[in-house]
Amino acid sequence: MATAPAIAFERVCKGWGAQPVLRDINLAFASGRITAIVGRSGCGKSTLLRLCNGLLTPDAGTVRVFGEPLPAPDPVALRRRIGYAVQQAALFPHLTGEENITLVARLEGWSAAALAERLEKLRVLVDLPADALARLPFELSGGQQQRVGLCRALFLHPAMLLLDEPFAAVDPLTRRDIHRRLLAVHAQEPVTTVLVTHDMAEALHLAEEVVILGAAGGPQVHSREALRARQGDGDAESLLLTLMGEADP
């Protein structure tokens, strides 16, 4: 029997004022997999992501998360099942790395032993230096801030992880290392992950499935294997333009 999708969009529409952003979207995100959403700026990638955790509500249609329609009866409880990381990490500037990572767990009453065990496991998995835990965000490098943000998003053992271009602001070498660490985390804790990115190469590296927004005819869904076969020896960005119908003739 097929597993129910972690997230399902059923004829979802969303706009800002008179400007439509998403029109009649039908999508399903498989449980336990990494799915990337790519497309041009303004095509609705981040809007789609925020619909997944109830930060936004659709103008029409239904969003289902874990089989239940949104809005959830208890939005706070839902969001604590969903990890969320964004481009600039959005760390609290007055809290140390450790305090940022463990804040919600401490509010929920985790024991000191449980906090320490989870913190050390994630710190090692994402390769965050131990001394970074005692620093404030402005004392951390961009890569360290993103690692702290990723630890925070994963700390409560979420059933879903939403990533809104979290690696866009770091240098290529750091990004490559964080990619490797994210895949290592996913191998140990295969949480349903939705990644928004403008980088097709990043999408092909991390995701098992890629959703292309903004293409003629509506969203396209492709497996990584199918996209790599179509890419051949070409570069990833040219492949994206071709799929969106924007490649040079």
UniProtKB/TrEMBL annotation:
<dbReference type="InterPro" id="IPR027417">
    <property type="entry name" value="P-loop_NTPase"/>
</dbReference>
<dbReference type="GO" id="GO:0005524">
    <property type="term" value="F:ATP binding"/>
</dbReference>
<protein>
    <submittedName>
        <fullName>Pyrimidine ABC transporter, ATP-binding protein</fullName>
    </submittedName>
</protein>
<dbReference type="InterPro" id="IPR003593">
    <property type="entry name" value="AAA+_ATPase"/>
</dbReference>
<dbReference type="InterPro" id="IPR050093">
    <property type="entry name" value="ABC_SmlMolc_Importer"/>
</dbReference>
<feature type="domain" description="ABC transporter">
    <location>
        <begin position="7"/>
        <end position="240"/>
    </location>
</feature>
<keyword id="KW-0813">Transport</keyword>
<dbReference type="InterPro" id="IPR003439">
    <property type="entry name" value="ABC_transporter-like_ATP-bd"/>
</dbReference>
<dbReference type="GO" id="GO:0016887">
    <property type="term" value="F:ATP hydrolysis activity"/>
</dbReference>
<dbReference type="InterPro" id="IPR017871">
    <property type="entry name" value="ABC_transporter-like_CS"/>
</dbReference>
<dbReference type="Pfam" id="PF00005">
    <property type="entry name" value="ABC_tran"/>
</dbReference>
<keyword id="KW-0067">ATP-binding</keyword>
<keyword id="KW-0547">Nucleotide-binding</keyword>
